[in-house]
Amino acid sequence: MTFTETFTTEAFAPFNFDLTAQIFASGDRQIRAYLNGVFHQVLRVEDILGLVKITSNGTIEKPKLVIELKSNSPITPQHVRKTKEIVNFIFNLNFKLRSFYKEVENDSVMNQIIRQLYGLKNPTTLTVFESLLDSIVEQQISIKVAHTIEQRLTKKFGDPLQIEGNTYFAYPIPQNIASASLSDIQQVGLSIRKAEYIHGAAQLIADGKLDLEVLKNQKNPERIIAELDEVKGIGVWTA
Fold this sequence. Notes:
The protein has 239 residues and is α+β, with helices and mostly antiparallel strands. The chain has helices at 17-21, 77-91, 97-103, 108-116, 128-137, 143-157, 174-178, 182-186, 192-206, 221-228, and strands at 3-10, 32-35, 38-45, 48-56, 64-71, 160-163, 166-169.
């Protein structure tokens, strides 16, 4: 049985959802993609896996997003609230672009860029762990190849969600990768060294020795770099 809830959320204007979501236009449909005005991704929402579909029902100056959450488990009001928080974080809905535009209004180069990308907000990964693994994968290879490897990593180690006859995958949690062998991790197209780095980082988190999520609230980039630099395979560039 599939449970469905549909609700809306708003963003600080200006916000161009189509322009912002275009980065996912070439994404894997089983993981995360933006097709025909609809963004979809499997999210961990509290204790459930849910397929989120997002469309825009507003304008750049009066942005409003319609969110559809589907799950094989009952959806509670808490799940709805948490989903809104997650979507807010992924798309940086609370980022006040007008404040930024005001700061650079006398910069002719920046103003030209703003006119071209008006309302664009930079999407982010849901977890620092995902961002870290992506950064390791992307070391010294093309972004196209890296994205292919990242998709394989998700399909191999991510938890599957079957909704209405289709299979989707959530991004792997550290425990899934920590319990895998190095040879299994290598099979997605990684070198033995990168497989070691990824496995090592996941193991530290699974063992409770590393808490990456606290870095979301750290405002000092030098402290973030210093902490990540202690993890094997993470240098200043990757951090």
